[in-house]
Amino acid sequence: MTGPLAPPRETVSIARGRQRRREQLTALVMLAPSLLFLAAFTYWPILRSLVYGFFDVQLGSSAIFFVGWENYQRLWHDALFWQSLRNTVIYMVVTVPTSIALALLLAVALDRGLRGTALYRASFFYPVMIPSVAAGMVWVFLYAPGYGPINGLMELLGLPKLEWLYDRQWALPAIIFMSIWKYAGYFMLILLAALQLVPRDLYEAARLDGVSGFRQLLHITVPLISPTLYFVVVIGVLHSYQIFDYVFVMTQGGPADATNVLTFYIYQNAFQFQDIGTASAIANILLLVIGGLIAVVALTLGRRVHYLGR
Length: 310
Known about the structure:
71% of the residues lie in helices and 2% in strands. A hairpin with a 6-residue loop joins strand 1 and strand 2 (64-66). Helix 3 packs parallel to helix 7 (171-195), helix 3 runs antiparallel to helix 10 and helix 12 runs antiparallel to helix 13 (276-300). It contains 13 helices and two strands. It is flat, with a radius of gyration of 26 Å. By secondary structure, the chain is mainly α. It has helices spanning 9-52, 70-76, 79-111, 117-129, 132-142, 149-156, 171-195, 200-208, 213-224, 226-240, 245-250, 262-272, 276-300; strands at 55-57, 64-66. The two termini are 38 Å apart. Strands 1-2 form a two-stranded antiparallel ribbon. It has two domains: 1-43; 70-304, MetI-like (MetI-like fold, Orthogonal Bundle).
């Protein structure tokens, strides 16, 4: 707008500046509760953990003593720490790819427009809605050596019964299997939503050219939903290193620490051994491991992500 009735440019600039500051203040006020919650229950505990890793701190005691790298040196020679790290890595390496592969197959099958898709979708997603503690108790019953349904089925098939949660060889695989059952449906729902956005004419053209279903999945489906797959992989990795509730409910880290993972070992040091310094050091190592893995995922899978329009 120009002419004698147009306001001066300085006035317009001042008004826009005030409007921008007003919008920023409104946004800050709206975000304040969430920011305070994050600061109190996420950032402040992380900061304290980073500091306490260099101190001798006992639970319930106000006295703290600086010990430098002593907590980390003790962990370097701690066989149980390395075993818990090994168990955590095995859990992640098996659970994440298997859950995502199974979720992708289920999502592709449901995306075909099968009859009763809503029922199948609800059935596969139902385990996600079960509280973790309740799910753990259910699987303790299923794995029970004397009366558990799984061993009953194995007996009907002529297979030997197993003491799933009481055998060092089978305890961790039993928890891994339960975790796949629990979270494959969650990944499936996310991938199914991504599949709905894939243009159908691409599949039609591929079928006319005689492209098999597997090659369609490999060369059409996976590249077009690669951003969602990348997101699912990151979420899966983060979750795999936060495993605690199933171990606590089902095995307490046993038998003979065969299912002890880093998060449960942190709990043991903090609340059973009352050694906050060592627990903080383990938590710091866990944070470093997770950050390193996410960086590896970003540098490998992140570069292969195909974004529409780019």
